[in-house]
Automatic annotation (TrEMBL):
Gene3D superfamilies: Spore Coat Polysaccharide Biosynthesis Protein SpsA, Chain A
Organism: Phtheirospermum japonicum
Localisation per UniProt entry: Cytoplasm
Alphabetized Pfam families for the sequence: Glyco_transf_8 (PF01501)
Protein name: Hexosyltransferase
Gene Ontology biological process terms in this record: cellular response to cold; galactose metabolic process; raffinose family oligosaccharide biosynthetic process
Keywords assigned: Carbohydrate metabolism, Cytoplasm, Galactose metabolism, Glycosyltransferase, Manganese, Metal-binding, Transferase
GO cellular component: cytoplasm
Sequence similarity: Belongs to the glycosyltransferase 8 family. Galactosyltransferase subfamily.
Enzyme Commission no: 2.4.1.-
Length: 326
């Protein structure tokens, strides 16, 4: 089923650049709506030239839909997608609903989009990611060191693609696994043919512990291009691979570690009492609580894309070569 607009989007996509945008996903009546509101305000703070689309499941309540619309989001209802029946134990039970994200490939009114999970915040303008060469899937490599990866051979041998030379992949286990991205943030091109292929492939692909993330890695492996971790800092990197993190350069933070959701933060969970975590949680709240960042229709088009881009540093995106398999 094609996605339906829940609220009219007239006036919410600037006429000078109607074909690109950001998209996130929301299900249920829980508190993740706060994350989406924070993301909408964060994109305004960095003066993004593009709209935020929120793909919602039918169970998102009317109150939350109205809230998102009032924050300038384009709210689009999608039908859920379920994997083939299987007894798989997902790494997190709620992962099963995440297959519904595949619907965003049917948003053909956009030529290119950046997908962002609702627990992500953008702290610098990343519009230049929408100008990357077509034909590729861009995302940041994941880390295999947390216990959620305990089902994997990578975890069992202590191998991580973030530091492939620290513990090398055992030769007796064959070639090393292909590069694997975190699907909380990625750059993609909506396309009807790709959308149909995704759905067809899903029906013959047994579910795996990381649900749609595993599936997207399998499907897009041939065209995957890694981009620097500044575009999706998974918080575990701060204690697993601190040598790889230059926090002052990070542009996108992914609050995916247990206990790190700013709107639920207590500081009680493992690693959550770190000063860098406290700083990042405060940084999120500073954006969320800033009333000046609330959506104002009269400010819809106060700037042009060329004017915005002229104020930004050169938007060169570097690509990361595959780690050595030695």
């Amino acid at each position: 089923m094609a996605p339906a607009d829940v609220y009219p989007s007239a006036g919410k996509i600037a006429a000078s650049h109607p074909k690109k945008g950001y998209v996130t996903f929301l299900a249920g009546n829980g508190d993740y709506v706060k994350g989406v509101v924070g993301l909408a305000k964060g994109l305004r703070k960095v003066k993004s030239a593009y709209p935020l689309v929120v793909a919602i499941l039918p169970d998102v309540p009317e109150e939350h839909r109205q809230l998102l619309s009032s924050q300038g989001c384009i709210v689009k209802e999608i039908e859920p997608i379920y994997p083939p029946a299987n007894q798989i134990q997902f790494a997190m039970a709620y992962y099963v609903i995440n297959y519904s994200k595949l619907r965003i490939w049917n948003f053909e009114e956009f030529s290119k989009m950046v997908y962002l999970d609702a627990d992500i915040q953008v702290y610098e303008n990343i519009d230049h990611l929408l100008d990357t060469p077509d034909g590729y899937f861009y995302a940041v490599m994941d880390c295999f060191c947390e216990k959620t990866w305990s089902h994997s051979p990578q975890y069992s041998v202590g191998y991580c693609q973030q530091c492939p030379d620290k513990v090398t992949w055992p030769a007796e286990m064959g070639p090393p696994p292909p590069l694997y991205f975190n699907a909380g943030m990625f750059v993609f091109e909506p396309n009807k043919t790709t959308y149909e292929q995704l759905l067809e492939t899903l029906q013959i692909t047994p579910p795996t512990p990381f649900a749609e993330q595993d599936f997207l890695n399998m499907f897009f492996n041939p065209i995957y291009k890694p981009i620097p971790l500044i575009y999706n800092l998974v918080l575990a990197m701060l204690w697993r691979h601190p040598e790889n993190v230059e926090l002052e350069k990070v542009e996108v933070v992914h609050y995916c570690a247990a206990g790190s959701k700013p709107w639920r933060y207590t500081g009680q969970e493992a690693n959550m009492d770190r000063e860098d975590i406290k700083m990042l949680v405060k940084k999120w709240w500073d954006v969320y609580d800033d009333a000046s960042l609330d959506y104002k229709p009269e400010d819809e088009e106060p700037f042009s894309r060329p004017a915005i881009m002229a104020t930004l540093p050169e938007p060169a995106v570097s690509y990361i070569p595959a780690p050595s398999a030695a």
